[in-house]
């Protein structure tokens, strides 16, 4: 039997076990496993996002191009190309 000091944790674990038809221990293990996987995915995503932003900054640093035209410059009042 898994020991839980918090009555709130114990109550949640019992509810989860009833809902999933698992033992309390199995329900807690699965919940913790899923949470750990979620945290790891989030950290990995954040790392990838930071890597992509760094790549973008490096690419933009070497570009000396004129600004890209906006919709108003490309299309007339009827939405047709100029």
Low-confidence stretches: none
How many strands appear in the DSSP assignment? Answer: 0
Using the CA coordinates, give the radius of gyration. Answer: 27 Å
- Estimated helix fraction: 55-70%
Shape field = elongated
The pLDDT mean sits at 88
Q: What proportion strand?
A: under 5%
What pattern of helices and strands is seen along the backbone? HHH
The largest sheet is: none
**DSSP helical segment count:** 3
Structural class estimated from helices and strands: mainly alpha
Intertermini distance = 75 Å
Features:
about 80 residues, mainly alpha
Description:
The protein is mainly α. The protein has a domain at 7-59. The chain is built from three helices and no strands. Helix 1 packs across helix 2. The longest helix has 38 residues, at 24-61. The relative contact order is 0.06.
Give me the secondary-structure topology.
Blueprint: H1 7-20, H2 24-61, H3 71-74
Quick synopsis:
This protein has helices spanning 7-20, 24-61, 71-74. The protein is an all-alpha fold and 82 residues long. It starts with 6 loop residues before the first helix and ends in an 8-residue tail after the last helix.
